[in-house]
Amino acid sequence: MVFDYLEGGADDESGLRHNRAAFDRWELRPRRLIDVSKRVQSTELLGRQISSPLVIAPTGLNSAFWPNGDLSLARAASKAGIPFALSTASNMSIEEVSRGADGDLWFQLYVVHRNLAKSLVSRARAASYSTLILTTDVAVNGFRQRDLRNGFAMPFKVTPRGALDGISHPRWLWSYLTNGMPQLKNFATDDASDTASQAAVLRREMDASFGWDDLRRLRDDWPGKLLVKGIVTAEDAERCVEIGADGVIVSNHGGRQLADLPAPIDALPSISDATPTTDLILDSGIRRGADVVKAVALGATAVMLGRATLYGLSAKGEAGVSDVVAMIKEEIDRSLALIGYSSIMEVDRSCVARRPV
């Protein structure tokens, strides 16, 4: 059940395959006889230096994979010198993660209820989160057949099938019984005690009326950096920038909302052309270091790691996340050397081409 929640996608899950196949349609064009004896992958994102063009993406219900999973991800990101984004649907609260991890913390906002959203934004500001991410692609929940079949929900529902599933995974079950049932901690505080709002986030019923004027007000209310996530068209990206967003996250929610959307890597070039001075972050489908190099070449400043780091979290907790980040960094370094670039900041569109059909 938990693996299906991590691995699954929307509808027939063709969006998952499309996201990965889109990377394969781009190939790297190497330069030769270049001094690549020293290589650098550090870069600047939103005015801050980061060790590699990587961000750990906001993901929900991480304690289903590992106890205090949000904190494990945040600490691994801090050690790696890259930002970590906490989801509204986290199992640890905004304040708990801020107290338990240093580094560059971002907060991702789902607008379930307007007043509750204002409270979450205020709490993130008070807890010194540097960047706010507005996710725009969840007007309604995607049709995820695996979750429906398994009855995956928060709180976990005890069914005969679910009980058998848990018993057949004794290590996970022991951890679950020892650490207690994961909760949506951001909706279990004195400042977020509206039971209707808590029920809505459990059903992923977002405020489908949230529009451009609301984004303007959010921009006015938030003093830090503001990113808009879920953008796959140049028109929407341009409008975000006009309103004052500091960057755009090109994403189709990892194929978890609607299968029939553009692969973000294919949408990236036109968005980059339309917003040439804006930081763009690519999300969805990143698995290897070469994927990161291709994304940067096509206009991304950085990429988000979602499933990739959750695989590591599920296997070994914080150490597993660190292992995954280290592997991807090593692959970025190797890719740069083998295509003749000494710095990730030198990479541009000249080093990629569409594969011949």
TrEMBL record:
Chain segments annotated as transmembrane: none
Stretches assigned to the FMN hydroxy acid dehydrogenase domain: 1-357
Cofactor(s) listed in the protein's UniProt record: FMN
Positions with a binding annotation for glyoxylate: 5, 110, 144, 253, 256
Pfam families per the UniProt record, alphabetical: FMN_dh (PF01070)
GO CC, any one term: plasma membrane
Active site: 253
PROSITE patterns: FMN_HYDROXY_ACID_DH_1, FMN_HYDROXY_ACID_DH_2
Root EC class: oxidoreductase
Binding site for FMN: 58-60, 87, 108, 135, 229, 251, 283-287, 306-307
Keyword Transmembrane among UniProt keywords: no
Entry's Gene Ontology molecular function annotations: FMN binding; L-lactate dehydrogenase (cytochrome) activity; L-lactate dehydrogenase (NAD+) activity
Claim: Flavoprotein is one of the keywords in the record: yes
Entry EC number(s): 1.1.2.3
Top-level division of the source organism's lineage: Bacteria
Listed InterPro entries: Aldolase_TIM, Alpha-hydoxy_acid_DH_FMN, FMN-dep_DH, FMN_HAD, FMN_hydac_DH_AS
GO biological process, one term: aerobic respiration
Keywords, alphabetical: Flavoprotein, FMN, Oxidoreductase, Plasmid
Family: Belongs to the FMN-dependent alpha-hydroxy acid dehydrogenase family.
Protein's name according to its UniProt entry: L-lactate dehydrogenase (Cytochrome)
Gene source species: Paraburkholderia phymatum (strain DSM 17167 / CIP 108236 / LMG 21445 / STM815)
